[in-house]
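Exercise: predict the fold of this chain.
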Amino acid sequence: MTNKYWLLDYLPTFLRPKQGVLLVRLDLIGDFILWLDSAQTYRDLYPRKKVTLYVNSACKELAETLPHWDEVVGVDVHLLRTNYLYRLRALTRLRWSNFAVAIQPTFSRELAGDLALRASFAPQRIGYEGDLNNIGSSIKNNTDNWYTKLIANDPKQTMELNINAHFVRALGCHKFLSSIANIPKIPVQRRAEIELEGPYAIVAPGASWTRKQWPVEQFSKLAQELVTQNGMKIALCGSPHDFLLCEQIAKALPANCAINLAGKTTLTEYVEIIRSATLLVCNDSAPIHIAAATQTPAVCILGGGHFGRFLPYKPEVDFANSQVPLIVTNRMECFGCKWACTVVPKGDDAVPCIKFVSISDVYSSCIDAINSSKRAHESP
């Protein structure tokens, strides 16, 4: 019913003028943080309008700390996709909000975001032409018609930071260039209490897809090296789903050298734990982008599915002393496969471009990241 829109199309609205700007951004945390580079420009584009951010509920707490919008509305994206009653209620609220402009700046659009944009019934509905990573061609051909304007892709822009920058330039911020220096805009919040004395490294072994996870045994050996060779304590972090992974690593370390915080912090507390860390090591997941936003030395074990899209960082303007996450990967000819892996892993194994990344290479990058940070702080 709500897919076809025959009900919402005829839903009456309140007789008041259309006003305000709706930004639809339903990504998970990592993509949301990458978008913060260009998100600040919407205040410049619409200086006298109320800006409402319609955001994945996983990002709502963080979004509310930022000054780029006047209102944040969180939505359970899973329910928006799967629960018709929830969808009807959520989209009806958008229909009744009387926005003048609705914008979905996401490049890899999906149906849920397109539904939210159409439900706004704003006279101006702007989005990206985008790609087919998250949506089928037949559905996209239909949902393209829900927009009054689609920003054409720039084939020269392949990294997410630059893709976002191209979008806001097309909207009118002609001089905007992507930069690492633009990302660290997350305000300092109250730091979570962490029962570790002295310098600590964060190890975050989880990922949104288990085959993108570097084996937990290798994380354990890396953590042991950081403890024995560098005298660091280890904070094990992640979502509640990562608790058992983190517990495996904790048990492999000497007593009182590690603490398992997986699932025990809010998002803003997690940000502050990363901000205060000496080092972060993780898979291709949200923490690596939080580290960039807080300028924390960081190392990512990166596979080839979307190599170059989200990592490594290649902004249009590079500032000296910016702390860019380092990546370690097992380069293969099949890079760019979009996770349609040509080598089928056994059981629950990681894909080979991640599984066979060596511990020594990751450890070496960890030392490089720490030393790079020291040099940056010593520079005048």
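Check your answer against the key: The chain has a mean pLDDT of 90.
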